[in-house]
Amino acid sequence: MARIVLVLARLSIWNFKKGKREEGFAELDRILNSATRHTKGFRGYISLISKDDPDASNILTLWQDEETLDASEQGVYKLAISTVQDFLESPPQIKNFKVFSTELFTRSEFEQSHY
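^ that's the sequence the OP posted. Answer follows.
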């Protein structure tokens, strides 16, 4: 059976100083919305705000291949850290993944199929 990898993903786990998540995360979002748009191999991102920890958030970025994932670490990821370092409690943790499958729905598609 052939191994198919759709894209690669980097999960970055951001822990902000107490009360600084909103401001720090706004900067991260600004970077993702600008710096990644024309970055080779960038395929998208998902931002996750912790419901349980008011000072934490996770960002999942998607990359075309190993080369662009590695290059992003010296580009977009490095820019993000340097921009928000004053808001961080500690450097973000990262974990890399191979995306096996994904399915996302727009709200209207989900509502039509579930209601």
